[in-house]
Amino acid sequence: MWLHIWLVLSIASLHTESSGLTSEEISKFSVSGKYEATVTVDQSNSEYFLIAASGIPDHPWENVNPNTPTNQNYNIKIRKTPEVSPTKACVPFGKIGLTRTGVAIYNPLAGGSVNAVQGDSAETFDSCDGHTSPDGSYHYHKIPDSCLYNNTVDELIGVAFDGFPIYGPNVSDISDRWITSADLDKCHGREVNGQYRYHVTEQWPYFLGCYHGTVYADVVTVTYDCDLNSNDWDAWTYYLCECPENGGGGGGLPPPIECRPDNPNRPANCPDGPQQPDTNNVNDQSGDGNSGCRLGVNLMIVIFIVLISFQAF
């Protein structure tokens, strides 16, 4: 009897699979050949795509800090069939995905776990909305709408390291405005025609709030402990599950005391700025778009094992 219960719990906790990059999306990964930009997608492996890229942008860049873009020789494994994790993964400091031109996408934070895009802690970006880190990695923290993003409807921006695509904010099902963070779940994504996808927006956290799926351990280090139902995180205007090793209030943990929304003297350099919680936002961002599917599959497994148990007796 206990063995059967253990089997039920073990099977129910397994990751579920979801559709990843389509052949049409893969075809969007390309560069013009200018500025030493390169990107290729090797599809020969049965389990993953291998994206090789120089990491140098396919557009002019400017020295807005002491750093200069250099060839990063990226070889990134992306699951062909992403695994949806029951508990979501934190986003690490630095690289969280790649654009369709092979340039790094970073999380929204600068050093010290402060907002790199807006507020008093905002960093300086060039005219193409990117800049370079000390290791020579050119990257984007926000919408690259000056040079990469063309503002076309349902435009692919790139892919997150868990294998799910990242799209722009101009979407076909919302005609009068760009999509916002309030339209998305806590990982900053949604399902469209049965496929999960992230969207980059003008609002915090811009690209990703957490990883909806699992990532290869040799690509980036994450922990799967983001509590989407945490009351502490619900108090934030929008969600970010920052990996704990970054020194911030992440991994599903409460934000630092001084950055709590109820602090009247909340510093401007807190990750999402000195904002009060939006009590009028009734959008439910606690779901992951697959809970119904997992519940149905797990229920069928439970019924099957129970039937076997009765036959055994």
From TrEMBL:
Signal as UniProt keyword: yes
Pfam families referenced in this protein's UniProt entry, alphabetically: YHYH (PF14240)
Superkingdom, natural source: Eukaryota
Keywords, in A-Z order: Signal
InterPro entries: YHYH_dom
Composition-biased stretches (Polar residues): 276-287
Name the record gives this protein: YHYH domain-containing protein
Domain YHYH as annotated: residue spans: 77-173
Signal sequence coordinates: 1-18
Region of interest (Disordered), residue spans: 254-287
PANTHER family: UNCHARACTERIZED PROTEIN YBCL-RELATED (PTHR30289), YHYH DOMAIN-CONTAINING PROTEIN (PTHR30289:SF8)
